[in-house]
């Protein structure tokens, strides 16, 4: 996953899939757009006016956890 933030446009983009593919944008709220790939999976999320919904600086550094098997 990659996270992009453009402070000039206040756009936050979460990218889950790096492959080039046809996509469809589905606006779910006024400020949230899902980017859906041809197979129906979400490949990205755009958050418009991001600073109104979260503090972009709080995203860094990014931490993630995966559940342990067993």
Main beta sheet strand tally, sense and closure: 5 strands, antiparallel
Q: Determine the structural class based on helices, strands and strand pairing.
A: mainly beta
> What percent strand?
35-45%
Q: Which stretches of 5+ consecutive residues score pLDDT under 50?
A: none
Rg of Cα set: 14 Å
What's the β-strand tally? 5
Strand order in the largest sheet: 1-2-5-4-3
Helix-strand string: EEEEE
Q: What's the rounded overall pLDDT mean?
A: 87
Shape: globular
How many helices? The count is: 0
Give the helix level as a range of percent.
Answer: under 10%
Distance between the termini: 25 Å
Question: What do you see in this structure?
Answer:
By secondary structure, this protein is mainly beta. The chain has no helices and 5 strands. The protein has strands at residues 2-6, 11-15, 23-27, 32-37, 42-47.
């Amino acid at each position: 996953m990659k996270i992009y933030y453009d402070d000039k446009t206040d756009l936050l983009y979460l990218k889950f899939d790096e492959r080039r593919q046809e996509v469809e944008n589905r606006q779910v709220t006024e400020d949230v757009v899902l980017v859906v790939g041809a197979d129906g999976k979400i490949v990205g999320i755009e958050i418009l006016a991001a600073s109104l919904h979260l503090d972009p600086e709080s995203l860094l550094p990014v931490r993630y956890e995966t559940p342990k098997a067993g």
